[in-house]
UniProtKB/TrEMBL annotation:
A GO MF term: DNA polymerase binding
Region ranges (Disordered): 1275-1298
Gene: fanci
Domain FANCI helical: 295-376, 562-798
Domain (FANCI solenoid 1 cap) ranges: 9-60
InterPro entries: FANCI, FANCI_HD1, FANCI_HD2, FANCI_S1, FANCI_S1-cap, FANCI_S2, FANCI_S3, FANCI_S4
GO biological process: DNA repair
Domain of life: Eukaryota
Name of the protein in its database record: FA complementation group I
Span of domain FANCI solenoid: 73-290, 384-548, 813-1034, 1048-1272
Amino acid sequence: TSNMRADIMEKIVSLSDGERIPELQQYLSSLTDDQLTTVVTNSALKGKDIGAMVKSIFKGNHVPLSLSHEGASRRLLLYQHCIPLCESGDLQTEVASDIIGLLMLETHNLPGPSLAQLASLFVDAIKLGKMGSGKSLELFPTVLTALAATEALSYGKGELSGEEYKKQLINSLCSSRWDPQCVIHLTTMFRDVPLAPEELQFLVEKVLRMFLKLDLQEIPPLVYQLLLLAAKGCKKQVLEGIISYFKEQDLRQKEEQKDGETMDVEVQSIPQDQLRHVEGTAILHIVFAVRLDQELGREFLKSVKGCQGELCPFSIALLLSVARIQRYEEQLFDFLKGTITKGFKDEHLQQGSKFLQDLLPQRCSLAQMILDTVKNSVFGWDHVTQGLVQLGFILMDAFGPKAGPFGKTATEGANATAKTPTQQACRLGGHILLEGFKMHEPIRGEILEQVLNRLVTKTASPVTHFIDLLSDIVVSAPMILLESSSKVTETFDHLSYLPLATVQGLLKAVQPLLKVSMSMKDALILVLRKAMFSSQLDGRKSAVTGFLLLLKNFRVLGSMASSQASQAISSSQVQVDVHSRYNSAANEAFCLEILSSLRRCLGQQADVRLMLYEGFHDVLRRNSQLASSIMQTLLSQVRRYYEPEQDLLPPVKLELCIGAQGDQVFLQEPLAHLLSCTVHCLLWYQGMRRSARPNAGGSDNDDDDEEEGGFQDELQSILESITRRMIKCELEDFELDKSAEFSLSSVGVKNSIYAVLVMGVYEVLIEYNFTKANYSKSLFEELLELFSRYNKLSEILKEKSGKGKSSKSPRSLLSMGFVSTLLTALFRDSAQSREEALLVLRSSGDFLRYAVNVALQKITQLEETGHTDGPDGQNTDKTFHHLCDITSVLMWRYTNIPCAVEDAGKKEKRCSVSLLCLEGLLRIFSTGQQRYPARVAQLLSEGSDHGPGNASVTEKIAFYIRQFQRALFTQLSGGEEDFSSKEAQILVNILSVLSRQLEPSSQQFVQMITWTVKICKETSFEDIAFSKGLLSLLFSLHVLYKSPVSLLWELCQDIHSQLGDIDQDLEVEKQSHFAIVNMKTASPTTLLVLSQVGKVLDEVDWLITKKKGQLVPDRLSSGDATQAAGQQDPVEKALTLQLGTLLTALNELVQTALPSGVCTNTLLGELSRTYTILTTLVKYPQVCVCPLKSLIPLYFQVKLSGSHLTPQCYSFITYVQAKLLRETKAIPNLIYSIEQYEKYLITLSKKSKVNLMQYMKLSTSRDFRINAATLEAALQEHDNSQQEPEQSQEPKKKRKKQ
């Protein structure tokens, strides 16, 4: 009964307290086991005096070990009873802790067998999953430690030392099944157990396997405990285990998401947000551990660097978080930067070679993973986002566009695609920042600030990539940007000190914000007004740029909606229209005020005026209400330079257009541009009035006609008068005749400026009068008069400047739209009514050539900068449509009137129109590919009339390719005297541009390559430039189809048979695979072949490096090795074939009597590289798992190189030395490479016990002059010959085995 229990308890405690030990012992031995355990249980449940009770029982059973077996078993009983009691969960926590604490103190007093029993109790409880709360596990390490210290324990039939016994226990524990609930408790517990390294490894493997059995929530605490456990060792294993677990989970989650989307079922075993939060916490734990434990940090770095780019979104996030620790920051960002570029380079290499694509699978791109990390970091990973921002800017800073020579920058239009690995890396940086900006509130301010800072501070290098990023940010989140508008307005303060290109980009990027933020607009206007009076020319230009932009974008009520008005930002993003309608009166006042500011600029430098003339037309189109104001401004400017006296010639006052300072003469008024701007604005204005007329009934708008008609009539009569008088003018009227000088003296410079102005005026008049002529024959005759004046002047300029520098005609003032109209009229217009008038223009060959030449100039400008001069030049869509029209015309003209027909009657030296058209087409196709990669199909389909209508892109391209193939075939089927090399080269270039658009797997591509091979085999023209072009085309196609080594071998045989052998007495058997290789073209072909050999060696080198990288981790798993021994690895097999064929090809070239110079030097260089790669291969089996299987392919290489190539190399060296007068470094380099190779072969022969040297004649005799460069080689030689004697005996013993 309970009273009785209480009595027993009181008695035990009082005896113990009174230190009456013998009585206590006696009393305790009088109690049965049951009585004792019940008393303990009761007192524990009540939580009263349990500590005293347990202490007393220990006291009473504490006799010298030799005497009492009973005392020991009593103590063991106490343990066996208390442990499950503490696990039961019935006790209060502190009570359980007290009991365990007391038991711990007494553990070392237990005898060995008791300890063994106790340990087994724990192991069994764990196996059965009875360690629910894990409370009593704290005792287990103490038991194990005590156990390890005992001398000997009986085990089975014999006995083990305590240490061994502990090992057995741990082994059995780690091999058994663990209840997922107690994994964390066990991991925690093992931290206190002394473990040998192999035990620790066994344990860590077990815990990592258990990850998959746990709930997600339990992972972070387990990671934490594992990291603490890693303090003992196995750090790399722990880190890699954690990373690979999360990598696996991410992949599963991705798969599930995909399946969910395709099957419309929610199959989420891993909820995404939960997974991300768990990952975030795990990352924090790891970073915390790395901060505290430098060794762990070092292991982390090692593991990351050793993973051969096998990163995943989780490990990237982890990297970026660890990078916030200063110690590791630089290393980790350098590593990431390197890995990213290496990834892009590898992709680049693989995309360019079918051989590599077939061998290695395409891996998930690193860029995609980093962007995944950005996405994942939305789930509260603030510790990662900081690193992402840093990474984004590091990439953009390191790989952005660089300043070219003389501070010029390569202009990349906004729509150029990233092609090179560096451009891709920079683009990736931009993507990271843009996505980060969209998703993360906290980092927005910082990203914006850093971008703006760079725009202001990086004035020496181009900042286009930062402007693009800013513009993307504005478009994606205009409202967010308004919150930090102060940062943008701060940047405005620097406008007048920034390079003009930066200002234009910046203003264009923030333009959508100006419509919504009044304060920003006002701040900008203040800055621009100040800039108008800047002492720097660039500052004033910036002001003009800014004002024109504002004029374009603030619509005045009643302005005709032009297709351009709705640009960049849709009203759903920003409610612009509301305030612009509401405020249009204010807008009008504002615009007129700006215009009056701009009028001041008309008195400034030519550059500033030029910007105004370039910009006015665009302003008009967007803001038609400003027409009268702008037209009046232009009219008053034209009046300044117009000669009103109708009888005076010339009709313009040229002397007012130039200024002088000291003996410097410079242009003051770009008169031709002024006229051009006036003409375009007038034509547009008249067009607009016409389209508005039909519905303007009645006479209610007569009055504003009066006011506006005034300038319209006056301008028209001025233009007519100028035209009339310019036709009458002779060159003498401008003081420009045949005798005029165009030197660099002040007179010469003045004459050059006059000439350019006059030519420009003629061009503007040609465009105006063509538009006004409405196909009247007499007006077209006048137009030709204008042209002949223009042409005469142009000829004089060419002649005068042609002596010194290449004559580049000044930029034409015709607009792109007009060029397209004019070409269509000249070449395609078949209307009966217009035929007679057009015949006038068509009969002038010079005029036709001029028209096509201007088109060429415009297309080149478009290709280089992404836009053209003149009205609408910045408007991508319009420009693209003009380009399509021009393509169609040029294509029609070239195919219908071939050059041969056109040239037949003429003996002039000039380029024929058809050839110019062909050149235009080449430019157009490459421009299309660079500037409009997504719209190439549209360009082609609009460019051809009889092409397939609704065909696929590939079919359209194939249609064009057939047209040009036919043309080239016609060229080649004539005799060599009719062959036009220039035309053939352009055709080959066009074919190579077009074939790049074909999908290499398509049948059209295969047809293209078959055709090219056929042409190369059958054409024997001795034209070096053409054969180079054709072979380059062949190579560029071939690498995308299959490896080019066999092709190279055939070409090498051809070259050998054409140029003859280095041993003149030898007759080379005549071989001709490719007729294109003949005496004249053989040496240029050699250079092409060698550059291809270089590329193949690059690929082989890359593969070997990849292979070496894979070998290191594989050495651990020797299981794979035995399985692979039977079959050869596909990569090794491919390497063998590549190198084998290449060695055979080089063997042909080495025997060829090549002309000395570039050819021989390049060949010597490629040979050294080949030997270096062979040397790597010979070292490579030593890394391999089982050397003998790798020797099979090697054997083949060694035999080839030894019996053929090396002896030939030495004869070739002698041949080159005989022909060369000056020493070349290439020779000693080659000899050194050969001998390195032989040295490693000897080492390998000894290691593998296979004699690889039987094919090698070790080079001992040489007849070349010893000099410093070759001395090293000779010494090496000496070392090699020391090893020779033992070598030469080896073959006899080995021969039988083979």
